Structure formats: structure tokens, C-alpha cells
Amino acid sequence: MSLRLFHRFFLVLCLALFAVTGYWASGGNATALVTPWLLYGSVAGAAAVIGYFVWHVRSVRLPA
């Protein structure tokens, strides 16, 4: 696996972790406790990762 592909895999993994954290913070935990600051932080982090992923895909081309 090349470094570029690993980088993309790691970004997708980070996005999945932000999604799980956002679900947990929105009341998907055992006590149904809503944690707004964590929810907003995970949404902001996911938005930043999506923006960076799009920039990375556009700027770095894989060899054909």
C-alpha cells in the first residue's frame, strides 16, 4: 500500500471515528446523555476532514 493510499485510508478512518463520536454525543450512549460541545466538535472535525480529503484528492493524483 502506497503512502498516498494509506493517507486516504486514514482520513476515511478519522471520518468514521468522528461519526461514531457524534452519534455517541447526540444521545446514543448507555445513559442517553447529550453532550452538545462534543457533538459540535465532532461535526466540525468531520467537516474539516471532508474538506481536507477533497483537497487531497484533487491535488495529489495517483499514477495510472
Q: What's the helix-strand series?
A: HH
Outline the biggest β-sheet.
Answer: none
Low-confidence stretches: none
β-strand amount = under 5%
What is the total tally of β strands? 0
Helix content: over 70%
Discrete helix count: 2
Whole-number radius of gyration?
15 Å
N- to C-terminal separation? 15 Å
| Backbone shape | elongated
Mean pLDDT: 91
| Helix/sheet category | mainly alpha
Number of folding domains? 1
Strand and helix layout:
Blueprint: H1 3-28, H2 36-59
Structural summary, described in words:
Helices cover 78% and strands 0% of the residues. The chain has 64 residues and is mainly alpha-helical. It is elongated and about 50 Å long. The model has no long low-confidence stretch (mean pLDDT 91).
Q: What's the gist of this structure?
A:
This protein has 64 residues and is mainly α.
Descriptors:
64 residues, mainly alpha, 2 helices, elongated
